[in-house]
């Protein structure tokens, strides 16, 4: 019951955050300027932006399949991935990630635990890439205070160091467990055995980092994944009349990635728009162009994910309702297990 109540709170906090974000944008920017920007949109650039999103999803599937030791076909990986992204766009609490893990876990020899661990690692690698990229993009924002630039550069160094720690932990599992146990034993309110188990599930997803060649391939793919999106943003900005360099577009990508980490409604409505709009304004773009790009790109991304997800459902033989039912069943089972663990600790 506690987990269910927590999920409801997270849902309403997300809705509230999205509403507040939209209100702030409307207070800062005249909606008529956004509408004028949309009326003048260049569809050829918008089409190129959509192509960038498609290539982004294709390379993501290559990377995910590689993390799963290439044990299933790329086509199946691609379709299951897209189903998950579609569900993230239309369902709260990122349930699309759970749906993706459940679907891939039903494809032998992949297990649910492996599916979950690779997605956790996937998000970690993505966020580390964004944090490492951000300092290099700040040269485009001349008005940014020096202390912010220094802080961002420091975070980039931390991100690179964290990637190194993950690689060492994946290759030195016994050492990682020993150090992890020593640290967790000093934290009385945490169940050491349970958290060590979770750490090992995470490290299972890093199996491709236990060999030098595979590590280099995974790092390369993690960089390659984002290249089409950098161009997709630049083309999208040009599509609504903006002019930014590729590095400037990269700054907007970083702002968008960090903003959608906040709780929000399904599809990151509001938080995506305010993050992108603020970044565009910081680059010196007009109000209409800034708000217009946020609206256009979010709509383009939403439509693309839904179309790819529906194609994925058709190709895998799954249905919208069956995926939701399976996902809900898994979530309920997890909640029961968490409640059982809590009752044991309380006892």
Topology (SSEs and partners):
Elements: H1 2-28, H2 31-39, H3 43-67, H4 74-90, H5 95-105, H6 112-137, H7 146-171, H8 173-184, H9 192-204, H10 212-224, H11 227-239, H12 246-259, H13 271-282, H14 287-316, H15 320-346
Supply database-style keywords:
mainly alpha; 347 residues; globular; 0% strand
* Percent range of helical residues: over 70%
> What's the SSE pattern?
HHHHHHHHHHHHHHH
**Average pLDDT taken over every residue:** 85
What does the overall shape look like? globular
Uncertain runs with pLDDT below 50, 5 residues or more? none
Most strands sheet? none
- What class would the helix/strand composition place it in? mainly alpha
Give the distance, in angstroms, between the N- and C-terminal Cα atoms.
17 Å
How many domains? The number is: 1
- Rg, please? 21 Å
How much of the sequence is in beta strands?
Answer: under 5%
Question: How large is the count of helical segments?
Answer: 15
């Amino acid at each position: 019951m506690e987990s269910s109540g927590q999920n409801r709170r997270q849902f309403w906090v997300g809705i509230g955050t999205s509403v507040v974000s939209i209100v702030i944008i409307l207070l800062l920017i005249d909606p008529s300027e956004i509408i004028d920007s949309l009326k003048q949109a260049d569809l050829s650039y918008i089409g190129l932006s959509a192509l960038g999103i498609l290539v982004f999803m294709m390379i993501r599937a290559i990377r995910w399949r590689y993390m799963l030791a290439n044990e299933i076909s790329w086509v199946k990986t691609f379709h299951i991935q897209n189903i998950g992204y579609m569900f993230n766009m239309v369902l709260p609490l990122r349930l699309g990630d759970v749906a993706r893990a459940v679907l891939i876990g039903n494809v032998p020899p992949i297990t649910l635990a492996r599916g979950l661990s690779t997605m956790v690692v996937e998000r970690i690698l993505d966020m580390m890439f964004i944090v490492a990229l951000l300092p290099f993009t700040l040269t485009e924002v001349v008005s940014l205070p020096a202390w912010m630039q220094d802080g961002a550069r420091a975070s980039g160094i931390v991100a690179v160091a964290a990637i190194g720690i993950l690689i060492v932990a994946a290759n030195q599992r016994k050492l990682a467990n020993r150090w992890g146990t020593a640290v967790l034993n000093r934290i009385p309110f945490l169940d050491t055995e349970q958290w060590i188990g979770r750490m090992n599930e995470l490290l299972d997803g890093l199996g491709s980092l236990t060999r030098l060649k595979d590590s280099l391939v995974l790092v390369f793919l993690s960089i390659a994944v984002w290249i089409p999106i950098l161009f997709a943003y630049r083309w999208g900005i040009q599509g609504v009349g903006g002019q930014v360099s590729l590095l400037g577009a990269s700054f907007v990508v970083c702002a968008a990635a960090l903003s959608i980490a906040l709780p929000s409604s399904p599809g990151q409505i509001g938080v995506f728009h305010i993050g992108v709009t603020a970044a565009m304004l910081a680059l010196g773009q007009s109000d209409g162009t800034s708000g217009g790009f946020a609206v256009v790109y979010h709509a383009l991304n939403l439509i693309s994910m839904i179309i790819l997800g529906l194609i994925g459902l058709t190709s895998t033989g799954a249905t919208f309702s069956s995926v939701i039912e399976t996902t809900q069943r898994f979530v309920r089972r997890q909640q029961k297990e968490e409640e059982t663990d809590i009752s044991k600790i309380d006892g």
